[in-house]
Amino acid sequence: MIRANQAGDMPRIDDGAYVCSSAIIVGKVEIGSRVFVGPNAVIRADEPGPDGRVQAVIVRDRANIQDGVIVHALGGSSVIIGKGASLAHGAVVHGPCLVGEDCFIGFNSVVFKASLGDGVIVMHLSLVEGVEVPPRVHVPSMSAVRSAADVSRLAPPPAELVGFAGRVRDMNVVLTEAAHRPVL
Q: pLDDT band at 181, cuts 50/70/90?
């Protein structure tokens, strides 16, 4: 379902994106080229701030928002999902939030009031809240990163995780492109 928010803002979706018919896209949402939005994903830009304005949720080119992902923001704040970022099944990204280019957010992880630098890999069942995470670090599965001390303990991701994140991104671009080809 694609619909306006209470302010009348309609989503803007690039013709090269794929949005599954069971996904819900509401309001001031911008979805770029070759973006994959999977089944039952929810992307909402519908909560006004104190000034009455709704800020945008922006999903940049080649990003993927997989099955059951929720992207939303507190009133008056925005969410930006960078180029090539992957939000895996069941992840929640709640703004204010910035997810850098080529980031990976694993199954059922939560990113809230946070900024992730390019290439950050957040593995499964993790919480990243209220922090700024520098580029190219790894948040292990089942971690909580909620302070500068937590951030300082993060290390670069192993090569196999970087490869995994790249394969996930590339496969979702393939799925998006396949959805636009005629069925023979």
A: confident
CATH label of the domain that carries residue 82: 2.160.10.10
- Regarding pTM above 0.70, the answer is yes
Residue 38 belongs to a domain: yes
Write out the catalytic residue numbers.
47
H/E element, 96: strand 92-99
State how many domains the chain has.
Answer: 1
Task: Tell me, yes or no, whether 68 lies in a domain.
Answer: yes
Q: Are 150 and 144 in contact (CB under 8 A)?
A: yes
**How far is the C-alpha of 13 from the C-alpha of 120, rounded, in Å?**
26
- For residue 180, the model assigns a pLDDT of 83
Burial-class residue 74 by CB neighbours within 10 Å (0-12, 13-18, 19+): middle
Which domain range does residue 143 map to? 2-179
**pLDDT score for 88:** 98
- Closest listed residue to residue 138, CA positions, set 123, 116, 117, 160: 123
